[in-house]
Design brief:
Elements (H helix, E strand, L loop, with lengths): L3 H16 L9 H8 L3 H13 L3 E4 L3 E4 L6 E4 L6 H8 L3 E12 L2 H7 L6 E11 L2 E11 L16 H8 L5 E10 L2 H7 L6 E10 L5 E9 L4 E4 L8
Parallel strand pairs: 3-10
Antiparallel strand pairs: 1-2, 4-5, 5-6, 6-9, 7-8, 8-9
Helix pairs in contact: 1-3, 2-3
Length: about 240
Amino acid sequence: MSNFPFQRLQADLAELIAKTPPGQRLVSEPDLAKQLGVSRATLREAMRSFETQGLIRRRQGSGTFVVGKVQALDSGLEVLESLETMAKRLGLDVSVSDLNIEAIFADTELAAALNVPEDSPLTRVRRVIRADNRPVAYLVDTLPEKTLNPDDLLADFHGSVLDFLLARGDSVASSRANVSAIGGTAEVAKALEVQRGDVLLHFYSQLFDHNGRVVDYSLSYFIPGYFNFHVVRRVGIS
């Protein structure tokens, strides 16, 4: 079966989005599906590619909005750096919102990730990173309390736990990260103002000091289209 009808649908959507001013809401999904002569399931599938490009955003209970194209944060993954450092290097403005700093205790998952006993005191830092006042990333860092006390961040924190540790002179040596695409949970979707289940780029990372001790366990969620991550690799010689 030819995929021409689907390609035509994407072309029609691209034209509609291009003609709609940023910030304006598209017609409702049922009406748009009827207007374009397709099912709602087919329409959602076609619209997903525009979501990943950052051209539209669906908001639970509000509809689908055209958000326009923003400059993507482009960076290699060979060197660990914060989003704030990356944005500054590229001349982009980012800000932090919904900052939440709290003292918690290690459950089984956190104890394993940080290599600490269960019920150990921890500090968790959650926040949203915005570009052009749009949520583009949701970051969650969890550290042993002896590494970072919640009170340490109250005076002057700009969003990056990594930058804070480096500026303080902490021994930070390396990081291990797993990268995957996942569907957003209710908590993450709410923070990023997307639909639950929408595809997000997910980083699961551990930060190590020079003694190999885990000093930070982080979960990072990025809206595709706002980030271009790449890896430069050498060709192996046998």
